[in-house]
Structures are given as C-alpha cells and as structure tokens.
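Case study B.
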Amino acid sequence: MPNRTFAIIKPDAVNSGYTGKIYDRILQADFKILSAKLMRMTLAQAEGFYLVHKERPFYGELTTFMSSGACMVLALEKENAVSAWRETIGATNPEDAAEGTIRKDFATSLGENAVHGSDTDENAEKEIAFFFTESELICNQ
Ligand code: ADP
Ligand code: MG
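Model:
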C-alpha cells in the first residue's frame, strides 16, 4: 500500500526559479502529488513546523530563512514514500549529496538546501496535517 510523505520546495529554490524543475523530479520519481500550494510561512508557522529543532543552534537562522519568502508545500504519495523521497532529495548538506539528487543539483548550502523531506511515516502524517486539511488532499478521495 502506498504511503505519504511531506515535501517543501524551500524559499531559496523558489526564489531561484527552480520550482518547475523540482516538480519535474517529483513526477519523474513517480510520486503522486496529493496536494500542493504556494505560500509564505509566517515566522510563527516556521517555528511551529521546526519545533523539534528548537534547541539546535541553527533554529533561529532556519526559521527566519523558511519564512523569508514563498515556498511550495506538497503532500506526496508513493510506495515507501518517506525513504523514496529522502533518496530523491539527497543528503542534508549538498556537499554530501549524491549525483542526480535534488540537493546536489539545486541546493547552495547546508542551511539553504532547496527542499524538505519528512524523516518518518509518523512525522510525515503530522507535517501533512500541519499544512493541509484532509479535503485538500484531493487525489486521495
Ligand atoms: P533534513 O532537512 O535533511 O531532514 P535536519 O532535519 O537535520 O535535515 O535539519 C532541518 C533543516 O535545518 C535542514 O534541511 C537545513 O535547512 C537546516 N540545517 C540543518 N543543519 C544545519 C546547520 N548545521 N546549520 C544551518 N542549518 C542547518
Ligand atoms: Mg529533518
């Protein structure tokens, strides 16, 4: 049974005009897009979304960056969606990302690394619910 993951095309990538190219990578990797929206997070939303990193030294930098401009949030579906999407995006630090991954091709730094991907099925469901209502996940109905 396919399951779901949550993705963000981060402000650096949207601002650099990579939204369409990253959308293509999502479709080429056979993810079904259940929902997608362009939005700009408030600082409070970014702080809530990344609450798990609250104690990390980069929390302020990360939440300021994530609320600095437009991003695209997406709910994706595929067999083993969480690990499949993390493979498609590559390592957190683009310098360590494998050839052909999104972060290798579009990220500029460890902080501004083009895309987000959930790390577990449980977090994927929480993250999808943070930005989407069930009725917005139109392909799932
Ligand atoms: P991932 O996004 O690969 O799951 P993490 O959950 O560890 O990575 O971190 C969340 C995000 O925080 C990263 O994608 C990146 O934007 C930022 N980040 C992580 N580590 C650092 C760091 N040392 N300095 C600055 N930003 C960081
Ligand atoms: Mg993470």
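The CA atoms of residues 5 and 136 lie 15 Å apart. The remaining cases will be described in the next quarterly update.
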